Amino acid sequence: MKDSRTFTPRRAYRYDYEEVESEAAAKVFAYLNASIADGTLATGAAFGTYEVALADNFEYTDPIDGSVSKNQGLRIVLKDGSRIIFRLSGTGSAGATIRLYVEKYVVTGYDASTSDAIKDLIALALEASKLFEFTGRKEPTVIT
């Protein structure tokens, strides 16, 4: 699969949930962290019809000075190369923003819209995070 991704269309979406109560946003991330820690989202775990290849709290290493920025978001990488990333920002008094990034390599159905191509991953991401249960948000504020 790795070589086929060079020529396979990639579909991606970002869902922003803005002005989420900070406490509710923290619960989403605590739940996801716990799911990674307890093995629910561990390597090899079933994730809908997918298999988890990696789940972690990713960090960025600057290639110039070698500095490391930890806790950059929660990442779920699936065996087919698809990725789901949750990032949290702006946890001040006006609330937080939860950003959900979803990326999928589309092997069949090239003519499908992006929303149709990745709706299964969006549903899995929302289910895995319990975002609706913790925040009460049925829809994102912004979709890009």
Automatic annotation (TrEMBL):
Entry keyword Endoplasmic reticulum: no
Pfam families from the UniProt entry: PGM1_C_vert_fung (PF24947)
A GO MF label: phosphoglucomutase activity
GO biological process: carbohydrate metabolic process
UniProt KW Magnesium keyword: yes
Keywords from the named record: Isomerase, Magnesium, Metal-binding
Entry-linked InterPro entries: A-D-PHexomutase_C_sf, PGM
Gene Ontology CC terms: cytosol
Family matches, as PANTHER family: PHOSPHOGLUCOMUTASE, PHOSPHOHEXOMUTASE FAMILY MEMBER
The protein, known as: Alpha-D-phosphohexomutase
Source species taxonomy: Eukaryota, Fungi, Fungi incertae sedis, Chytridiomycota, Chytridiomycota incertae sedis
